[in-house]
User: Fold these one by one.
Assistant:
Number 1:
Amino acid sequence: MSKICFGCGAKLQCKSETEEGYVPEAKLEDSKYCKRCFRMMHYGEVNRAVEPKTVSSIVNSVNKHAKFVVFMVDFINIFDDVMDIFKRIKVPKILVISKSDIIPKNVSFSQIKNYLKVIYKVDSDIVFTSKKSNLNTLKKSLYGKDEVYFLGLTNAGKSTLLNSLIEKGRGKTTELTTSYKENTTQDFVRLKVGNMTLVDSPGFVIDNFELDKYTNVSEEIKPVTYQNKMACTYDVGKLFEIRIKNATNAVFYFSKNVEIRRLYSKETTGVSFKVKGNSDIVICGLGFIKLTEDTEVTLPQDVMKYMNVRPSITGGIYE
Ligand SMILES: Nc1nc2c(ncn2[C@@H]2O[C@H](COP(=O)(O)OP(=O)(O)OP(=O)(O)O)[C@@H](O)[C@H]2O)c(=O)[nH]1
Ligand SMILES: [Mg+2]
């Protein structure tokens, strides 16, 4: 029987170093981890996985085999594409808002819950967790289940949360590989904890900014507000520029390392579109900009594929 890497779920193999699950032949017998996971854990190297699984292949497999699903999404990645995948999961499920420690103080958990119920018609239980908090509430929701799949966008924190649950559930001997890069977990990994089997899964990969440690939101978001009285361009962490044409407040929710600078007169080229007041422009994986009034916005063409507009999650009618 072939062995599976405990860190990422890839089938261990010693034939091709460029394909997933590679271990040198001499180590195959004793290894619990593939070379990529071993180097990520011990040398802090971060290597991208070979080829992410498609959303449909993960969803189909889960709908066929799973009995219960914990679907994880973090605060900055609640938008249509992700919530559509949530709806495609047809087995009993709960929604976990992960990384609750990054949620800014001006947004309450109940506000987010109401938002999810009103905007996305979520009728499943909604639980807030972080790698360090609220694990007991989550455990209560899982009580009595014999098998639970953990799903969500890449980087939602699935493997990290499972490592925390395992640590609490039994003496920790091995751990799942985690990293700020996308697509760390490559296949399903089954973990036996008491009578329960917890299943880690490869994250859904949709177009997102390739994050590095610098841009990744790793602590509480501190919003930065600008009163945009006339057409202005904003430089977002030297990653891209956004031009906001009309009078509106613009509130930037990004990692504190992503510096926002206003460039008053600079014109930009790109794709222009109209946004309704009280909307968030979400840049997948990176953060979002709340606009309080109707306005025209211009973003570079290459940023458009990471962009979603959602009704503002931080206020308005959902409070
Ligand atoms: N601030 C914060 N960061 C977290 C938390 N949980 C995970 N992270 C970070 O988020 C990044 C992604 O975590 P992973 O556990 O690898 O995410 P994943 O969902 O397993 O990702 P894939 O395997 O690619 O699908 C890592 O840099 C983690 O340290 C959390 O509760 N709070
Ligand atoms: Mg993972």
Note: The radius of gyration is 21 Å.
Number 2:
Amino acid sequence: MTALLPEAPIFKATGVGCRFGGVIALDSVDFQVGPDEIVGLIGPNGSGKTTLLNVLSGIYRASSGSLEIDGKPSRFKSSRRLSRDHGLARTFQNIRLCPSLTVRDNVLIGMHSGFRWYDALWTGGRGSRERRSVERVEEILEFVGIADKRDEIATDLAYGDQRRVEIARALATNPRLLLLDEPAAGMNPREARVLVDLIKRIHDEREIAIVVIEHNMNVVMNTASRVMVLDAGLCIAHGDPKTVSSDPHVLEAYLGKRFRDA
Ligand SMILES: Nc1ncnc2c1ncn2[C@@H]1O[C@H](COP(=O)(O)OP(=O)(O)O)[C@@H](O)[C@H]1O
Ligand SMILES: [Mg+2]
């Protein structure tokens, strides 16, 4: 198992705990992700997967344990700083698109979130910066396969397409680590297969590390090189997808029922 761990992780969480009143959402969890990885995070509902992503992306503050970014101890940082200074981007389990804005404008927002006020001073002025932004948005929309929906109101789209707009918006921040929280939720099997291909292309062609939470086992098993399983806030298994999927603890806690029913 140790051999699987990255030599130089982007993010390393050690003994991370997170509690809400009496609820222990995470109980001393070790987690890391390296620049060349796609890491799968699975576990039953309420097992702490989203909480771990929220801790990594600066939305929740860990109650205990430590975080390192690029080998340096990291105190609590806001999502904005993690995005701007460390190239972290994410999507949400509950889709968070701006209502009444088009697909293109939703993605453009992602791009602007990375700007600093002084960017305007040396990029040849606002006009050329905006032009380049629009070109980049177009390239990203093509890449995720929703360019034909660019002028539609994002929240009017089918669920699966909205999830792809969220991914496009995250890509617009030019990340090096992308956290995906249940990207296949609401997708039909065909859309989920296209998503598998998209996740692989994001990793291979754009060289972005990925952490993916998913209930769709086809998505996890066909993308992740390493999988961690949470159950009631504890890591109960960790390893390559094949080993994890045959681990008796995992079969009992989670996969067994799904695989039996599949
Ligand atoms: N903001 C919050 N306030 C109170 N409890 C929370 C909060 N976020 C998560 N929890 C609790 O933490 C546990 C883990 O939740 P979550 O991380 O969302 O699980 P998962 O994503 O694996 O389904 C659950 O018991 C949930 O109710
Ligand atoms: Mg969740």
Note: The longest strand covers residues 23-33.
